[in-house]
Write the structure tokens for this entry.
Amino acid sequence: MPHDHHDHLSPSGHPYRPDDDHPLTYWQQMEIAIREILIEKGVTTAAEINAQIDTMDARSPANGATVIARAWTDPAFHAALLDDASAASASMGFDIGPLKLIAVENTQDVHNVIVCTLCSCYPRNLLGLPPDWYKSRAYRSRTVKEPRKVLAEFGVTLPDHVTVRVHDSTADMRYIVVPARPDGTDNWSADRLAKLVTRDSMIGTGLPKDPGTIAQPLPSG
Amino acid sequence: MSDRCYMRVATHMPPGHVRTPAYLRGKVGWVERKLGPFPNPEQLAYGLTAETARLMRVRFTMAEVWGPQAECPDDTIDAEIYAHWLEPTDPPHAT
Amino acid sequence: MGGDAAGPIPTEQHDFSLWEKRVDALMVIASSRGHFTVDGLRRVLEDMSPESFETMTYYERWIASVNQNLIESGVYTTAELAERMSEIAARGTTYGEASRE
């Protein structure tokens, strides 16, 4: 059996679905056909397709967490991120391609949440592919109308004095939420802070982890 | 907030590919920031050479978009809308 | 879609399978070569019937859109696709058997 991915684990640490062994579907036939035709016509190569898959697999919420933690600890970078999130992310060495990114910041008075009602636009070149719920009809329909109920389903309940700002990625920009830095993290390194930043906290459907859940770093030396 | 630049989204519903969500048609918001220019996606979508289009982020209150059904009237929705969908207008009257 | 009533947000998550990742890669590569744009991808997705959202998976809709755009831009013809798909169906009954490496 031609498997070229049996030794790969997904970003979540699980094996991929064993799709090679499932009955061939019409749409899989189409994918194989298009791939072979594009290779034969010289549009692409098998190696390029594999390289693109590897590039996408390497993008994960950990990239965004690194960016957020730097913004929490470096005032100049924080300003640069809010001014031009694409340039700031690229300056940290992340290969984000043509991604045009806007960072929106949570404060004591504002909570931001990202949605794409028209399709499923997502800052994929920084955070990797979107979670399934982000692409669901329910999330895309409800978030612009009842964001507080949606957030409550994710376990985020906001006080009345906090304004919710929903960002609908309708056109060319993509968005990342800069969550508020948790209290009790003074003097934490950026590396340690990054462990608090979850994928959902950068979409706005979550908050950073409780600092108490992160183990103390081992003493050096 | 007299320095806000208010815009009304066009109400038309043309067939074909547009990036203006139906739920914002006819609604009034203010320009949160200007973006672009970008090639017009309404032409790119059909494989045509695209003209340059100005893009704006427009902020709407939930009260404006959903009326009495709004979950929380002062919460907001920001969306990117191309300038040819927008017409300058007066601020909505406070009620 | 925005503002429509809908039920709870689904929480199930699946890991992307190889064929889904290939669809994603084909979209990125073909559009980066100028054969179509993300707007063309979105156009075909949004023109699909509401039922397709229920009956097709996310990447099934994507490969259908990629195909439509590639035919429209003249990269290959419908006849070429049909012939190749028949040939592929004859190779075996699973994705692994049909996808020769």
Summary: Chain A touches chain B at residues 117-118, 144-149, 160, 163-173 (CB under 8 Å). Chain A has two domains: 26-57, 60-211.
